[in-house]
Amino acid sequence: MSTGVIIVLIVIVVGVVAAAAALAPRARGAMGGSGLKRRFGPEYDRTVARHDGDTKAAERELGERVQQHGSLQEQPLEPAAREQYQARWAAAQELFVDSPRQAVTDVDQLLGEVAGARGFPGVEEYEKQFDALSVHHADHVHGYRRVHRVVDSRTNGTPESQAGTEEMREAMLEARDLFDDLMSTDNGGHGASARGRTGRHAFGSFNRQAVKGS
Fold first, then answer.
1. How confident is the model at residue 156 (pLDDT cuts 50, 70, 90)?
2. Which residue has the higher pLDDT, 14 or 184?
3. pTM of the full predicted structure?
4. Cβ-proximal residues to 61 (8 Å cutoff; 6+ apart), any chain
């Protein structure tokens, strides 16, 4: 191989490396900063707060979530499974009046099972499941975190174990948003009808009963 050819090849390689180096920050920028804020919404702010204001650490964590779970394809629910899940939510809602903590426990388990049925990591892998849900349902995932903390605190003795009825009611209300999301995001066009049947309107009686029982 002649010296001229070698020089040309070296120039080409150097050019490719330089181009890759120039594009890398742009790729990282699309996954960080304003891009992550838009994707994660309130979850972005919570993650920053959990990292004591360190935005770089928070964005690194959120970027890793997207990298690991961004390509996940949600699976549709079978009609029979959908009806069963909705019935279980209604039962937990009624149970809340007499046994709010057990109702929250049931909702925590239900959300994990529904998420698993939609193609997210299984209920036995809560942290991984939550991370995946935060990538695809960032606006509503915090409700799942709240009910799970109440349940988890029963064995760990954390401050959430002292959660009052009103706090648990609010956690269930927020968790309901994620439940509705998981029930109504199939590609088959079930969203509007499902939300109309089982959404916030149906939760009105729960609000009144919970206050009465608190």
1. low
2. 184
3. 0.71
4. 47, 51
Phi and psi angles of residue 77, each rounded to the nearest 5 degrees, phi first: -90, 145
- Identify the residue whose tokens are 């959404």: 199
Say if residues 104 and 171 touch (Cβ distance below 8 Å): yes
Q: What is the number of helices (H) and of strands (E) in the chain?
A: 11, 0
Q: Please name the residues in contact with 192: beta carbons below 8 A apart, sequence gap of 6 or more.
A: 184
Q: Answer positive or negative: Cα dihedral of 52, 179, 159, 152.
A: negative
- Return the CA Rg of the chain: 23
For residues 140 and 175, give the distance between their C-alpha atoms in angstroms, rounded to a whole number.
7
Q: Would you list the DSSP string of 90-153?
A: HHHHHHTTT-HHHHHHHHHHHHHHHHHHTTSPPTT-HHHHHHHHHHHSTTTTHHHHHHHHHHHH
Give yes or no for a contact between 174 and 143, defined as CB atoms under 8 angstroms apart.
yes
Q: How far apart are CA 193 and CA 198, in angstroms?
A: 9
